[in-house]
Amino acid sequence: MGRAAARSDLDESRLQLHRAMLDTDKLFFRPGGRVLLADIGDLLTQCLRNVDHVTDLLAQDGKLKQN
Q1: I want to staple 2 with a disulfide (CB 3.0 to 4.6 A). Which of 6, 11, 38, 67 is the partner?
Q2: Cα–Cα distances in angstroms (integers) from residue 15 to residues 18, 31, 42, 51, 63, in the given order
Q3: What is the pLDDT of residues 28-58, one digit of tens each?
Q4: Distance from the first to the final alpha carbon of the chain
């Protein structure tokens, strides 16, 4: 799989995750559940920042094979 295809898959996965979080948000009414969902959202945000950082580093590394 080339980089462009991998990026496309990553973008699609990110969109699906965003949609799932929006759908899930509609299901939680109790305060404890809302707190847990907010915690998950915070963790996902940090995880996606890490993914973005790694993909930026990979894009800058000219030694990696471009497919």
Answers
A1: 67
A2: 5, 26, 16, 14, 30
A3: 999 999 999 999 999 999 999 999 999 889 8
A4: 7
